[in-house]
Design a protein that fits this description.
Elements (H helix, E strand, L loop, with lengths): L6 H9 L8 H43 L1 H36 L11 E10 L4 H6 L6 E4 L2 E6 L4 E6 L15 E8 L4 E9 L1 H27 L6 H49 L4
Antiparallel strand pairs: 1-6, 2-3, 3-4, 4-5, 5-6
Helix pairs in contact: 5-6
C-alpha cells in the first residue's frame, strides 16, 4: 500500500546508510587502511627508542639522586678551588706591586733592597766630600733631567734611579734598575762604585720561568726516550721538532731579558752620567 512506511522499513533505513555510487566506497577503504598501517609502522619503529630514552633518563636521574652528596662535594670543592685561585692571583699581583713600590723608594731602608745584577767602578773629578754635599738640597735630593739622586753623607752613598712617570711615552720593562753609588776619597779624585739592582719579584719570576721551561723540556725528552719515542723515524722527527720548539722558547726568553736589561741599563747610565757631570761641572754646584 502506498501510505506511510512501516516501522521495520524505517529501522532498516536508519541502520543501513545508502551506499555511494560509482565505486567511491571501494576507493576510500584502501586509503584508510594504508594510513592506519603507516601510523602503526611509525609507532612500532619509534616506540623502542622512546622506551630506551625514558629508561636512560630514569637511570641517569636515579644515579644523580643516589650520588647527590658526591656531586655536591665535588661542586663545593670546585668553587673553593676557584675562590682560592682568585685569591692567590690577587695576592701575587699585590706582592709584585708592593715589591716594585718599595724598590723605587730612595729611603735609607730601601736603597739596598733588590737583587744585585751588576756593578761598575769609576773615578770622579771631585776632590772633597763637601763638594758633593753642596750639590744636594737639605733633604739630600738632587733632581736630574732623567732621574733623581739622593745623598746620605753618614753612609757616603748616593742612590739613583730613572724618573718613573705615570703616563710616559717610553717603554717600560719588567726589569727596572736602580743604582747605589758607594763613594770613597782618593788622592785627588773620588772613587765611585755603582751597584745595580732589580726587584726581587722580577728576578724570582724570571728564574722560575727559565727553570720551568728548561726542566720541563729535559723531563719530556727523558720520558719520551724511555717510552720509545725515538725508535721510529716519525717519532724521532716529532721529538726533534718539540725539542727545537722548547729551545726556541728559551732563546726568545733570553733575548727578551737581555734587550730589556740593555734598555734599563741605558736609562740608569744616563742618570749616572748626568749626576757625574753635575758634580764635576761646578765646585759648589
Amino acid at each position: 500500500m502506498g501510505g506511510k512506511p512501516s516501522r521495520r522499513e524505517t529501522y532498516d533505513n536508519t541502520r543501513d546508510p545508502p551506499k555511494p555510487q560509482n565505486g567511491a566506497y571501494s576507493s576510500q577503504v584502501p586509503q584508510a587502511s594504508q594510513q592506519t598501517s603507516s601510523t602503526s609502522l611509525v609507532i612500532s619503529l619509534a616506540y623502542p627508542g622512546l622506551i630506551a630514552f625514558q629508561s636512560g633518563t630514569c637511570r641517569a636521574t636515579a644515579l644523580l639522586i643516589r650520588h647527590r652528596p658526591l656531586w655536591d662535594g665535588i661542586a663545593a670543592i670546585s668553587i673553593a678551588m676557584v675562590i682560592a685561585g682568585v685569591f692567590a692571583s690577587f695576592l701575587f699581583i699585590g706582592l709584585v706591586l708592593a715589591d716594585w713600590l718599595y724598590f723605587v723608594r730612595l729611603t735609607p731602608d730601601a736603597i739596598r733592597y733588590g737583587c744585585r745584577v751588576a756593578s761598575s767602578q769609576d773615578q770622579w773629578g771631585v776632590e772633597a766630600m763637601g763638594t758633593v754635599r753642596a750639590c744636594f738640597d737639605a733633604e739630600g735630593l738632587l733632581r736630574l733631567p732623567h732621574g733623581v739622586a739622593r745623598f746620605y753623607p753618614d753612609r757616603a752613598v748616593i742612590a739613583i734611579r730613572p724618573q718613573y712617570r705615570l703616563f710616559s711615552m717610553g717603554f717600560r720593562t719588567a726589569w727596572p734598575l736602580k743604582g747605589l753609588i758607594h763613594l770613597s776619597l782618593g788622592e785627588q779624585t773620588l772613587t765611585a762604585l755603582c751597584v745595580k739592582r732589580i726587584p726581587w719579584s722580577s728576578a724570582l719570576i724570571t728564574l722560575l720561568w727559565f727553570a720551568t721551561v728548561l726542566l720541563g723540556s729535559l723531563a719530556f725528552v727523558v720520558i719520551y726516550a724511555e717510552d720509545g719515542g725515538f725508535s721510529s723515524l716519525q717519532g724521532t722527527l716529532l721529538g726533534i721538532g718539540l725539542v727545537a720548539g722548547a729551545t726556541l722558547v728559551l732563546i726568545t726568553g733570553l733575548v727578551t731579558v737581555i734587550l730589556s736589561y740593555r734598555l734599563e741599563n741605558g736609562r740608569l747610565t744616563k742618570v749616572y752620567e748626568e749626576l757625574r757631570e753635575t758634580l764635576e761641572r761646578s765646585p759648589r754646584c
